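Design a sequence for this backbone.
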């Protein structure tokens, strides 16, 4: 953040006040921009090659695909001059792809585990002596009907915020996780139906789960 802010502010000063002090052939802006970019890229590469936590990988990818090329280099005061310089990406393509794979693998596992925990909590609720919650007057499971969908949607949105390609790749992966989750949910529900007919709230629990189907569709 400090490097990005410094680069943006300094290049803005160069555009506004420094360029006109030198002959065009000196290419003052281009030289400064390349020096800043090369240093920024070297630090990004150094970070990418070190051990990064998942949140750090996400932040670095956000800089590479989003913040740096869009928020910084498309800034209205800098875009015209920067378009002449052709600075390239903050990271080599191979390193960027490696980070993307780590991020996608991690995000896929995170969502998968989140869905599994959600189902475990729901199954535990069925065993409790409690009536299911009502939403708009109908029995429904807010945990399943809302949390699962939000988990998948949030994962997709985070990935899309990095880049469209990363978002599409994660969407494909999660589209495989959802049917697997739904099969586990169906099997658990069938087991409850067979073994818990004497449950005090058997019928409301059945209704709540049937009402979830519309949300999942």
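Sequence:
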């Amino acid at each position: 953040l400090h490097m990005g802010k410094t680069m943006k502010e300094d290049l803005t000063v160069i555009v506004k006040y420094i360029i006109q002090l030198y002959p065009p052939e000196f290419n003052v802006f281009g030289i400064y921009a390349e020096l800043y970019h090369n240093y920024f890229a070297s630090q990004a590469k150094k970070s990418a090659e070190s051990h990064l936590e998942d949140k750090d990988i996400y932040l670095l990818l956000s800089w590479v695909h989003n913040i740096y090329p869009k928020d910084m280099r498309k800034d209205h005061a800098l875009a015209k001059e920067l378009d002449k310089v052709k600075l390239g990406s903050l990271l080599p393509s191979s390193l960027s792809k490696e980070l993307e794979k780590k991020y996608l693998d991690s995000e896929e596992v995170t969502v998968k585990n989140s869905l599994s925990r959600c189902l475990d909590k729901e199954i535990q609720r069925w065993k409790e002596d409690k009536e299911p919650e009502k939403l708009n007057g109908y029995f429904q499971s807010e945990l399943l009907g809302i949390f699962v969908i939000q988990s998948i949607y949030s994962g997709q949105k985070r990935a899309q915020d990095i880049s469209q390609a990363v978002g599409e790749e994660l969407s494909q992966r999660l589209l495989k996780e959802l049917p697997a989750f739904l099969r586990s949910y169906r099997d658990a529900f069938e087991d409850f139906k067979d073994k818990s007919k004497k449950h005090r709230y058997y019928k409301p629990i059945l209704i709540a789960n049937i009402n979830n189907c519309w949300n999942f569709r």
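The chain has a mean pLDDT of 92.
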